[in-house]
Protein backbone atom coordinates (compact mmCIF):
# COMPACT_ATOMS: atom_id res chain seq x y z
CA UNK A 1 0.00 0.00 0.00
CA UNK A 2 1.21 3.51 -0.80
CA UNK A 3 0.04 5.00 2.49
CA UNK A 4 -3.04 6.42 4.21
CA UNK A 5 -5.74 7.87 1.98
CA UNK A 6 -7.24 11.11 3.26
CA UNK A 7 -6.26 14.36 4.86
CA UNK A 8 -5.42 15.40 8.40
CA UNK A 9 -8.50 16.54 10.31
CA UNK A 10 -8.68 19.08 13.12
CA UNK A 11 -8.65 16.32 15.71
CA UNK A 12 -10.99 17.90 18.26
CA UNK A 13 -12.54 15.33 20.56
CA UNK A 14 -13.71 14.88 24.12
CA UNK A 15 -14.89 12.36 26.66
CA UNK A 16 -18.38 10.99 26.00
CA UNK A 17 -18.75 13.06 22.83
CA UNK A 18 -19.96 10.05 20.83
CA UNK A 19 -22.03 8.37 23.54
CA UNK A 20 -25.33 8.72 21.64
CA UNK A 21 -24.06 6.99 18.53
CA UNK A 22 -22.37 4.33 20.69
CA UNK A 23 -25.64 3.59 22.48
CA UNK A 24 -27.42 3.39 19.12
CA UNK A 25 -24.82 0.97 17.75
CA UNK A 26 -25.26 -1.30 20.76
CA UNK A 27 -29.04 -1.51 20.25
CA UNK A 28 -29.46 -1.23 16.45
CA UNK A 29 -30.57 -4.70 15.27
CA UNK A 30 -28.58 -4.69 12.03
CA UNK A 31 -25.38 -3.58 13.76
CA UNK A 32 -25.78 -6.11 16.56
CA UNK A 33 -26.41 -8.87 14.04
CA UNK A 34 -23.31 -7.96 12.04
CA UNK A 35 -21.13 -7.95 15.16
CA UNK A 36 -22.53 -11.17 16.59
CA UNK A 37 -22.26 -13.14 13.34
CA UNK A 38 -18.82 -11.86 12.30
CA UNK A 39 -16.08 -14.46 12.01
CA UNK A 40 -13.62 -11.76 13.04
CA UNK A 41 -15.27 -9.05 15.21
CA UNK A 42 -12.94 -6.28 14.06
CA UNK A 43 -14.12 -2.67 14.43
CA UNK A 44 -12.26 0.36 13.06
CA UNK A 45 -12.60 3.83 14.56
CA UNK A 46 -11.41 6.10 11.77
CA UNK A 47 -10.07 9.57 12.58
CA UNK A 48 -10.37 9.42 16.37
CA UNK A 49 -8.59 12.76 16.76
CA UNK A 50 -5.97 14.20 19.03
CA UNK A 51 -7.01 12.00 21.96
CA UNK A 52 -8.03 8.31 21.81
CA UNK A 53 -10.82 8.60 24.38
CA UNK A 54 -13.75 7.96 22.03
CA UNK A 55 -12.04 4.85 20.64
CA UNK A 56 -11.61 3.44 24.14
CA UNK A 57 -15.23 4.27 24.97
CA UNK A 58 -16.43 2.58 21.77
CA UNK A 59 -14.56 -0.60 22.66
CA UNK A 60 -15.99 -0.70 26.17
CA UNK A 61 -19.56 -0.14 24.97
CA UNK A 62 -19.49 -2.61 22.09
CA UNK A 63 -18.25 -5.38 24.37
CA UNK A 64 -21.74 -5.46 25.82
CA UNK A 65 -22.68 -7.03 22.48
CA UNK A 66 -19.63 -9.29 22.18
CA UNK A 67 -16.75 -9.44 24.62
CA UNK A 68 -14.12 -10.51 22.09
CA UNK A 69 -14.52 -7.45 19.85
CA UNK A 70 -11.24 -5.94 18.67
CA UNK A 71 -11.14 -2.20 18.08
CA UNK A 72 -8.47 -0.44 16.03
CA UNK A 73 -8.23 3.34 15.99
CA UNK A 74 -6.76 4.75 12.79
CA UNK A 75 -5.26 8.20 12.25
CA UNK A 76 -3.21 9.82 9.51
CA UNK A 77 -1.04 11.76 11.96
CA UNK A 78 1.81 9.52 13.23
CA UNK A 79 2.15 11.62 16.40
CA UNK A 80 -1.49 10.93 17.33
CA UNK A 81 -0.92 7.22 16.77
CA UNK A 82 2.21 7.13 18.87
CA UNK A 83 0.52 8.97 21.73
CA UNK A 84 -2.56 6.73 21.63
CA UNK A 85 -0.53 3.51 21.68
CA UNK A 86 0.86 4.43 25.07
CA UNK A 87 -2.65 4.29 26.54
CA UNK A 88 -4.00 1.25 24.66
CA UNK A 89 -5.53 -1.48 26.86
CA UNK A 90 -5.94 -5.10 25.82
CA UNK A 91 -8.19 -5.52 22.81
CA UNK A 92 -7.60 -1.98 21.50
CA UNK A 93 -4.91 -1.02 19.01
CA UNK A 94 -3.93 2.15 17.19
CA UNK A 95 -2.38 2.47 13.78
CA UNK A 96 -1.64 4.67 10.82
CA UNK A 97 -4.42 4.66 8.23
CA UNK A 98 -7.12 6.50 6.32
CA UNK A 99 -10.06 5.54 4.12
CA UNK A 100 -8.16 2.48 2.89
CA UNK A 101 -8.50 1.21 6.50
CA UNK A 102 -4.84 0.18 6.56
CA UNK A 103 -5.72 -2.89 4.51
CA UNK A 104 -7.91 -4.35 7.27
CA UNK A 105 -11.32 -6.01 6.75
CA UNK A 106 -13.54 -4.74 9.57
CA UNK A 107 -17.15 -5.64 10.19
CA UNK A 108 -17.86 -2.10 11.41
CA UNK A 109 -16.25 1.26 10.66
CA UNK A 110 -17.05 4.41 12.59
CA UNK A 111 -16.00 7.63 10.84
CA UNK A 112 -17.33 10.46 12.97
CA UNK A 113 -16.61 14.14 12.33
CA UNK A 114 -14.30 13.14 9.48
CA UNK A 115 -16.09 13.63 6.16
CA UNK A 116 -17.68 16.83 7.42
CA UNK A 117 -14.24 18.40 6.93
CA UNK A 118 -14.04 17.30 3.27
CA UNK A 119 -15.58 18.80 0.11
CA UNK A 120 -18.92 17.16 -0.65
CA UNK A 121 -17.66 15.88 -4.02
CA UNK A 122 -15.11 13.69 -2.19
CA UNK A 123 -17.65 11.86 -0.04
CA UNK A 124 -18.65 9.21 -2.59
CA UNK A 125 -15.03 8.29 -3.24
CA UNK A 126 -14.28 7.99 0.47
CA UNK A 127 -17.33 5.78 0.96
CA UNK A 128 -16.33 3.57 -1.96
CA UNK A 129 -12.79 3.15 -0.66
CA UNK A 130 -14.06 2.07 2.77
CA UNK A 131 -16.77 -0.17 1.32
CA UNK A 132 -14.23 -2.15 -0.68
CA UNK A 133 -12.44 -3.03 2.57
CA UNK A 134 -15.49 -4.20 4.53
CA UNK A 135 -15.80 -7.78 5.67
CA UNK A 136 -18.88 -9.61 4.33
CA UNK A 137 -21.95 -7.99 5.87
CA UNK A 138 -19.86 -5.08 7.12
CA UNK A 139 -21.23 -1.64 7.95
CA UNK A 140 -20.04 1.97 8.08
CA UNK A 141 -21.25 4.81 10.30
CA UNK A 142 -20.59 8.27 8.81
CA UNK A 143 -21.61 10.88 11.37
CA UNK A 144 -21.28 14.37 12.73
CA UNK A 145 -21.93 15.84 16.17
CA UNK A 146 -21.42 19.04 18.10
CA UNK A 147 -18.51 19.52 20.49
CA UNK A 148 -20.25 17.96 23.50
CA UNK A 149 -22.29 15.35 21.66
CA UNK A 150 -25.75 16.72 22.40
CA UNK A 151 -26.71 17.07 18.72
CA UNK A 152 -25.74 14.26 16.35
CA UNK A 153 -26.62 12.89 12.92
CA UNK A 154 -25.26 9.83 11.19
CA UNK A 155 -25.71 7.55 8.21
CA UNK A 156 -25.48 3.78 8.33
CA UNK A 157 -24.01 2.30 5.15
CA UNK A 158 -23.43 -1.22 3.92
CA UNK A 159 -21.42 -2.44 0.95
CA UNK A 160 -24.04 -1.15 -1.49
CA UNK A 161 -24.63 2.34 -0.08
CA UNK A 162 -26.55 4.28 2.57
CA UNK A 163 -29.13 2.34 4.59
CA UNK A 164 -30.55 4.85 7.06
CA UNK A 165 -30.28 8.32 8.57
CA UNK A 166 -30.43 8.87 12.32
CA UNK A 167 -30.91 12.14 14.16
CA UNK A 168 -30.11 12.03 17.88
CA UNK A 169 -30.03 14.65 20.59
CA UNK A 170 -30.48 15.55 24.19
CA UNK A 171 -34.11 16.73 23.98
CA UNK A 172 -33.35 19.25 26.73
CA UNK A 173 -30.76 20.91 24.44
CA UNK A 174 -32.99 21.80 21.48
CA UNK A 175 -35.90 24.11 20.78
CA UNK A 176 -37.10 22.12 17.76
CA UNK A 177 -35.92 19.05 15.82
CA UNK A 178 -34.60 21.12 12.91
CA UNK A 179 -31.91 22.44 15.26
CA UNK A 180 -30.10 19.24 14.25
CA UNK A 181 -29.86 20.36 10.62
CA UNK A 182 -26.45 21.94 11.22
CA UNK A 183 -25.10 18.47 12.06
CA UNK A 184 -26.42 16.60 9.03
CA UNK A 185 -23.81 14.42 7.29
CA UNK A 186 -21.89 16.12 4.51
CA UNK A 187 -23.83 14.34 1.78
CA UNK A 188 -27.12 15.82 3.05
CA UNK A 189 -26.34 19.15 4.67
CA UNK A 190 -26.45 21.09 1.40
CA UNK A 191 -29.78 19.46 0.49
CA UNK A 192 -31.68 20.91 3.42
CA UNK A 193 -33.65 23.18 1.09
CA UNK A 194 -37.25 23.34 -0.03
CA UNK A 195 -38.10 20.50 -2.38
CA UNK A 196 -35.62 18.01 -0.94
CA UNK A 197 -36.76 15.02 1.20
CA UNK A 198 -34.49 15.75 4.17
CA UNK A 199 -35.92 19.29 4.38
CA UNK A 200 -39.43 17.86 4.26
CA UNK A 201 -38.61 15.46 7.11
CA UNK A 202 -37.20 18.22 9.33
CA UNK A 203 -40.12 20.53 8.57
CA UNK A 204 -42.61 17.76 9.39
CA UNK A 205 -40.74 16.98 12.62
CA UNK A 206 -40.94 20.64 13.63
CA UNK A 207 -44.69 20.69 12.96
CA UNK A 208 -45.19 17.48 14.91
CA UNK A 209 -43.03 18.79 17.77
CA UNK A 210 -45.22 21.89 17.98
CA UNK A 211 -48.41 19.82 17.79
CA UNK A 212 -47.43 17.67 20.78
CA UNK A 213 -46.27 20.58 22.93
CA UNK A 214 -48.76 19.51 25.61
CA UNK A 215 -46.65 16.44 26.29
CA UNK A 216 -43.87 18.76 27.39
CA UNK A 217 -45.32 18.83 30.91
CA UNK A 218 -44.03 15.25 31.22
CA UNK A 219 -40.60 16.22 29.92
CA UNK A 220 -38.97 16.62 26.50
CA UNK A 221 -38.23 12.90 26.14
CA UNK A 222 -41.94 12.06 26.34
CA UNK A 223 -42.65 14.90 23.92
CA UNK A 224 -40.06 13.50 21.49
CA UNK A 225 -41.68 10.06 21.62
CA UNK A 226 -45.09 11.63 20.92
CA UNK A 227 -43.55 13.47 17.97
CA UNK A 228 -42.27 10.18 16.52
CA UNK A 229 -45.72 8.63 16.83
CA UNK A 230 -47.31 11.59 15.06
CA UNK A 231 -44.76 11.40 12.25
CA UNK A 232 -45.54 7.71 11.76
CA UNK A 233 -49.26 8.48 11.74
CA UNK A 234 -48.55 11.01 8.97
CA UNK A 235 -46.82 8.42 6.82
CA UNK A 236 -43.14 8.94 7.64
CA UNK A 237 -41.26 5.61 7.95
CA UNK A 238 -39.79 6.35 11.38
CA UNK A 239 -38.24 3.41 13.19
CA UNK A 240 -39.84 2.59 16.56
CA UNK A 241 -38.07 3.97 19.62
CA UNK A 242 -36.45 1.66 22.13
CA UNK A 243 -38.57 0.92 25.17
CA UNK A 244 -36.17 2.69 27.51
CA UNK A 245 -35.20 5.86 25.64
CA UNK A 246 -32.48 8.05 27.11
CA UNK A 247 -31.88 10.04 23.92
CA UNK A 248 -34.11 11.73 21.40
CA UNK A 249 -33.58 9.48 18.36
CA UNK A 250 -35.23 9.62 14.95
CA UNK A 251 -34.23 7.00 12.35
CA UNK A 252 -35.59 6.73 8.82
CA UNK A 253 -34.51 4.66 5.81
CA UNK A 254 -32.21 6.34 3.33
CA UNK A 255 -34.95 6.21 0.71
CA UNK A 256 -36.93 8.70 2.80
CA UNK A 257 -34.18 11.37 2.66
CA UNK A 258 -32.10 10.59 -0.44
CA UNK A 259 -31.54 13.77 -2.47
CA UNK A 260 -33.63 14.24 -5.61
TrEMBL record:
Q: Which InterPro entries match?
A: SAM-dependent_MTases_sf
Query: Which top-rank group of organisms is this from?
Result: Bacteria
Which Gene3D superfamilies does its entry note? Vaccinia Virus protein VP39
Q: What is this protein called?
A: Methylase
Q: Which organism is it from?
A: Mycolicibacterium rutilum
Source taxonomy: Bacteria, Bacillati, Actinomycetota, Actinomycetes, Mycobacteriales
Amino acid sequence: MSGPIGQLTRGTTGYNRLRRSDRWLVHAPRVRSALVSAADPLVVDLGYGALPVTTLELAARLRVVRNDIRVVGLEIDPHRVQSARAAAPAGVEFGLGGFELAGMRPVLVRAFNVLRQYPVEEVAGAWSTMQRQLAPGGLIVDGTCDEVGRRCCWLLLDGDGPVSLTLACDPFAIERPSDLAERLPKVLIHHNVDGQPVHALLAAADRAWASVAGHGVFGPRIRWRAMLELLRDNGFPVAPARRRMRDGVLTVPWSAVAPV
